Amino acid sequence: MGIRDGRLGAALRSVFARLRDERGIALIAALGTMTSLGLVVTGAVAFTSANSRNANESNAIQKAHALAEAGINNSLSILAAAYAQNIIFYGEEVDLLPQRTTTLNGGTVRWGGEYCTGTATALCTVDDTGLWRLESTGSVKNPTGPGAADAAYTLRARIPASMGPTKPANPIWSWVYSGAPQSAGFAESSCNMVIGNKTRIMSPLYVVGNLCLENQGSISQPSSVPVSQCPSTTRTDCNRLVTGGWLWQKSNQNYVGTAAGRLSEAHVQDGCGQNTGSAAVIANPCTWDSEKLYVSPSGRYTSIGSAQLTPPSFSWDDYYRIASPGPKSRCRTTSGTPPTFDNDVIRNSSVFAVQNITPLNGYTCKTLRGELSWDPTTRTITISGAVYIDGSAQIDTTAAGNARGWNPNNAIRYVGQGFIWVSGTFLVKNATVCATPKSDWSGCDTAAWNPNTIAMGIAANGSGGQLPAGDGIQVVSGMYQGMFYATNDISVETTGQMQGPMLSLNRVSIGQNGEFSFPPISVIPSGAPGELPKTQLGSAGEYGG
Fold it and tell me: Can you say how many angstroms the Cα of residue 87 is from the centroid of all Cα atoms in its chain?
């Protein structure tokens, strides 16, 4: 036992000795340390490389972004320069911004834009009408090496191109213009315009054909003009008369001017007659005072000459196209039930039902460039721009007034400057439509109206239907304070009243009792018939990638 114990002890002492021996440990430690350092270095290199790549890519994208901004700025500069010349008509913008590529600062930028007309394209939607859509893409070579896609950034912007509220007025808008050509003969049926009842015309009157006065119809100076100040070369509101045919005063109660208040100017081309029974007996040239035609001696003309007026020239299709609200520009902000503007995309009178602009309940229709709204609670129509209805329309406040306890024959008002265009006819009935209502809503304040600052006009291309055959616009059992244009007849009935210019390519019939006058007009709503208005460039919107 003792020998075995001795051997075991010696073995254990040998093991312990070996365990205490540290030779070889340094190698193991060195290998471990080198491995760890290798991993750390590899990680650091990878991390540094990734950061470098990310920094390079970020820098490239920033350069691409800057290039894209430069492209947008180039487009804005071109548009601003073009519109500053005031030569671009609304809705007829030229192709100012074709796509192009420019090299700048170590990269390229592809930039350009498109004027939107309500047709879906690569840049425009069907709701985009009358605005520019801009797009610019900057590109920089990818710094990560060959085969990698270029760093690119795209920016877009929307620039509205709107018409201002007014445009200069054709001089004809300061007149009543009756455009029916002269009829042959000297019978009552040859009268191309008739002024009757107790109508007193106190604003400039232009009759292309023959003019007849009957009953107590007359032409005189406006009541606002002191008799002593007319005729005058400095006042623009002294009254004038032009007739391309003859003038027949059928009653001894008719007169044109007075001995104390002569018209400043009259052009009567084919002579005149007074109080001759059922057929006109015309003296050519006129004998003036003896025919109760009182005109300043310096203003008596037997030809139209320099007084020639020409109706505004325009295309109905153009206004159908640019109107907003209208067939090609739908309401963007809507409440209630606005009028129906169109039933297809063709100007063809597709709206069969007559649209009431002032129905029982109110509505709102706003677009990017215009508005037509009606609030029966405040009795207010809001209008701006050109509004087009491909059918007929009317203003009748019977339902709205009865429902809210105000007399439908009392006044409503409109605010803004605009024109309502209709392919059909327009009727004002059981409504008093005012730019400036009296404080008690009993009617229009005719002395307070300035048509150069607030005006709502009607342009009608049809005849008949809701109106008598041949009529395009009619006022009956109501009043309208504004502007009328019609391809066919304009008729103001005995129970109707009108204040404002009336332009008919055919016949104007004024049967209202009392004075007819309105202030001179130097500017008209941009949506009025005539040349398309000049475009105003707005501010950039929806700017971003």
Answer: 17
> Minimal CA–CA distance to 256: which of 270, 273, 279, 269?
273
| Tokens read off for 357 | 């602009």
Could you give the CA distance from residue 255 to residue 146 in angstroms, rounded to a whole number?
A: 95
Q: What is the pLDDT of residue 50?
A: 45
Residues 110/101, Cβ–Cβ less than 8 Å: yes
Q: Provide the domain limits for residue 126.
A: 47-167+539-544
Sheet of 199-201: strand order equals 255-256, 218-219, 199-201, 514-516
Q: What three-state secondary structure class fits 316? A: helix
pLDDT tens digits, one per residue of 403-440: 998 877 789 999 999 999 999 999 999 999 999 999 99
The pLDDT value given to residue 45: 47
**Whether residues 180 and 254 fall in one domain:** yes
Distance CA 483, CA 413 (A): 14
Q: Is residue 39 part of a domain?
A: no
Same domain, residue pair 295 and 356: no
The torsion angles phi and psi of 439, rounded to 5 degrees, stand at -60, -30
pLDDT tens per residue, range 51-61: 545 556 778 88
- The pLDDT, as a whole number, for residue 44 is 46
The structure tokens listed for 169 are 């007025």
DSSP output for 193-238: EEE-TTEEE-S-EEESS-EEE-TT-EE---TTS-GGG-S-SS-S-S
Residues 331 and 465 in one domain: yes
User: Is 16 among the domain residues?
Assistant: no
Q: How far apart are CA 352 and CA 349, in angstroms?
A: 7
